[in-house]
Task: inverse folding
């Protein structure tokens, strides 16, 4: 199938025979502001009637996003002026069950449309941003949230009201008097009279409020020792779930960074975060509030299966024994296993609480603080208790992604994603029943969307190949996984309100996300946008070739992208560069537009300069299943290095690359791996550039690091094994370190500490470049240019090209 992306690539390659050759690439061009490339289409959503698709485009030379509208059947997109934006259909579109009403969010406010007569009512007009609109099962009630507060509105009309008032403080009615107050009351009759009058007025006000349905609801007081983390209201307004944690819990010492280039002219400090093991996630608790009965119940997690286990028992015993042998009994005592493992509601990458459409059931996803277990539990409203419906355990760690879950339209059957077979797949389960796998195989499924009629799931999957993503559909009752799109480079999708079409974002290696629509039954898509600018499209970019690098360490094959000259014979004897993507758990070997689009242009420049380039999805990368992801557990930098060395061997064997002229570079996790490559395999790489690298995992954050390496106090061996600074004495090859000074993700102190270590070890051949106005992801073209100019010069000097 010929799509816009393939047509554009074909156009890139098709140049008239007599046309002048395109200008050579240069650093100024590829590291310029990316507006010259053309903007990616962002955040598409359907109009209420399904005839139009809205989307956003970044404005050239500005961070402002403009709203556009395009006919779903095809035609030119139109940029909406402020008046048209004010009248446009909004986001978060929801319908009641009978399709009598629809609600949406526009400029942070809630709007209600009567689908019978087409009239629209603005329900809210506030400075707060409202979210999460939802109808009750009978369609009579519309609810939404603003912050942690929930509001309701009768679709028949009338004022909106706050559905519940929940306060993290003590109930004033239970306030205890002090000894001094008792003495004052005993001594002075006037004070006693004032107190009695106050009580009488309060009692009268409470009685009037209780008898008046138009009055604000009575407040619920959860106690002054807790903080509210999240709230969730049932669609019928009957119940609320509240997630709490201990108030003012100690988060550990916070690291600071310094801004040296400021408006004030003075150096200014900024607080960032604490280190792993110094800020364990504060345990959370769940409360069920019966709004009708005005009662609060604690939902105890102690009944969750496996909650009393200690999955770290063996590591704990080894560390405790070592500490006691050293006479550090206080530290050993602090490592005692909890009787009941603490949990948090897993809401960072997926909903933590999901209600059924009728509000008669609710499911909660909880994760153990040690990251070894994930539970999906329902709530027994009659007994005020959690009931576990699914437990997923992992000896390494539960994946951050692919934890979506929800309810089928029957309001009884759960659906969820799980890695229990080693790959992310979709399941359904009636409470108390047996789970049914809707998808299975050695591939991944994510982004499940249930159709409005409740009959079909639409998912994104790489069933064809790890690097190839498209939309598939499967019946809720099971059956074959049917392919809907054939892009092999699908980025995202949205289902139309009538369940008949998909709005699809797709891309290709040199075409940022574009918009199309397609029938849910497949067929030819209708391409709606083309935002790539002629100057970028005219260049004959190198199409990356996806190759399979054989693993010599039992990992099967490692997928990679290879950039080389059009004439494969010219690759022989060239120097090579291996690029290492960041994040660890990220996939860069795919057919879509890469996050590393500047690096991809740099790879084209390197080929123009006489190199070949290999970009690998080493172990820990996303898209290859659980075992690939967790291969680095307690051992970061080791399996990945094996894969990178196999990549080098593949270049030597298959491309005739000179093994003594291979460089390596990458940022963030890629910078960490560049350090591990130079320090753990000295002599293998002639030079390396480590950008914003982690050099010591004890300095990184808790959420990411503790999942992979456990707490440093509990598992110091994992940190020593995995931290480049522990191998600093092995440095012998040329190393360039580059870091943003106001990086609040990987702090610049990581690079500076390693630099000091090299100084003390009397090492040579290492350099550092710091960027005073850059955070983790560089944003200023001048910094990008300087950063990559230095990398280019390093490879030129050390690889002899």
Result:
């Amino acid at each position: 199938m010929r799509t816009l992306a393939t047509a554009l690539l074909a156009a890139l390659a098709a140049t008239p025979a007599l046309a002048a050759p395109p200008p050579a690439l240069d650093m100024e061009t590829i590291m310029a502001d990316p507006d010259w490339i053309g903007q990616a289409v962002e955040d598409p959503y359907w109009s209420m009637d399904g005839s139009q698709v809205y989307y956003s485009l970044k404005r050239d030379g500005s961070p402002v996003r403009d709203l556009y509208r395009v006919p779903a059947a095809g035609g030119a997109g139109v940029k909406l002026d402020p008046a048209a934006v004010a009248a446009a259909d909004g986001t978060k579109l929801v319908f009641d069950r009978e399709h009598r009403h629809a609600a949406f969010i526009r400029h942070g406010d809630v709007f209600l449309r009567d689908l019978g007569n087409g009239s629209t009512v603005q329900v809210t007009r506030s400075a707060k941003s409202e979210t999460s609109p939802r109808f009750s099962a009978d369609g009579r009630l519309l609810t939404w949230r603003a912050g942690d507060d929930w509001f309701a509105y009768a679709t028949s009309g009338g004022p909106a009201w706050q559905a519940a008032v929940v306060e993290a403080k003590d109930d004033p009615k239970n306030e205890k008097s002090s000894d001094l107050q008792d003495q004052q009351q005993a001594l002075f009759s006037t004070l006693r009279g004032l107190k009695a009058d106050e009580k009488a007025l309060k009692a009268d006000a409470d009685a009037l409020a209780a008898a008046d349905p138009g009055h604000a609801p009575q407040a619920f007081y959860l106690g002054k020792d807790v903080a509210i983390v999240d709230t969730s209201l049932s669609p019928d307004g009957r119940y609320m779930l509240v997630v709490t944690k201990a108030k003012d819990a100690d988060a550990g010492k916070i690291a600071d960074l310094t801004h040296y280039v400021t408006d004030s002219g003075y150096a200014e400090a900024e607080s960032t975060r604490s280190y792993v093991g110094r800020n364990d996630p504060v345990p959370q608790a769940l409360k069920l509030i019966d709004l009708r009965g005005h009662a609060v119940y604690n939902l105890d997690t102690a009944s969750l299966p496996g909650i009393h286990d200690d999955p770290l028992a063996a590591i704990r015993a080894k560390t405790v024994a070592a500490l006691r042998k050293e006479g550090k009994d206080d530290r050993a005592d602090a490592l005692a296993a909890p009787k009941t493992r603490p949990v948090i509601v897993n809401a960072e990458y997926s909903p933590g609480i999901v209600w059924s459409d009728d509000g008669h059931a609710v499911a909660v996803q909880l994760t153990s603080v040690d990251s070894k277990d994930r539970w999906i539990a329902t709530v027994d409203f009659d007994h005020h208790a959690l009931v576990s419906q699914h437990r997923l355990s992992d000896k390494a760690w539960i994946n951050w992604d692919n934890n979506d879950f929800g309810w089928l339209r029957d309001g009884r059957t759960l659906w969820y994603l799980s890695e229990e077979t080693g790959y992310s797949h979709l399941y359904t389960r009636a409470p108390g029943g047996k789970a049914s796998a809707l998808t299975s195989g050695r591939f991944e499924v994510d982004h499940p969307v249930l159709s409005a009629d409740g009959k079909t799931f639409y998912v994104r999957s790489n069933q064809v190949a790890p690097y190839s993503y498209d939309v598939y559909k499967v019946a809720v009752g099971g059956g074959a996984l049917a392919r809907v799109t054939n892009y092999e480079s699908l980025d995202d999708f949205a289902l139309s309100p009538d369940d008949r079409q998909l709005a699809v974002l797709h891309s290709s290696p040199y075409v940022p996300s574009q918009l199309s629509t397609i029938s849910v039954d497949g067929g030819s898509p209708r391409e709606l946008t083309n935002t790539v600018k002629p100057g970028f499209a005219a260049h004959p970019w190198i199409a990356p070739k996806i190759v399979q690098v054989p693993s010599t360490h039992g990992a099967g094959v490692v997928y990679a992208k290879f950039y080389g000259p059009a004439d494969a014979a010219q690759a022989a004897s060239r120097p090579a560069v291996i690029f290492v993507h960041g994040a660890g758990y990220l996939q860069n070997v795919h057919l879509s537009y890469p996050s590393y689009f500047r690096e991809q242009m740099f790879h084209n420049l390197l080929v123009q300069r006489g190199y070949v380039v290999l970009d690998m999805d080493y172990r820990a990368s996303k898209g290859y299943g659980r075992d690939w992801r967790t291969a680095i557990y307690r051992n970061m930098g080791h399996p990945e290095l094996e894969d990178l060395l196999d990549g080098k061997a593949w270049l030597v064997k298959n491309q005739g690359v000179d093994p003594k002229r291979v460089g390596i570079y990458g940022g963030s996790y890629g910078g960490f791996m560049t350090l591990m490559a130079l320090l753990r395999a000295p002599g293998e790489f002639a030079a390396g550039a480590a950008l914003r690298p982690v050099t010591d995992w004890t300095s990184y954050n808790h959420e990411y690091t503790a999942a992979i390496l456990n707490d440093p106090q509990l598992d110091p061996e994992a940190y020593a094994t995995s931290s480049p600074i522990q191998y600093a004495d092995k440095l012998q090859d040329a190393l360039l370190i580059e870091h943003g000074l106001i990086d609040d993700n990987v702090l610049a102190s990581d690079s500076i500490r390693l630099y000091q270590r090299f100084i003390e070890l009397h090492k040579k051949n290492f350099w550092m470049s710091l960027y005073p106005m850059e955070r983790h992801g560089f944003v200023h073209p001048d910094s990008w240019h300087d950063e990559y100019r230095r990398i280019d010069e390093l490879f030129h000097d050390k690889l002899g090209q």
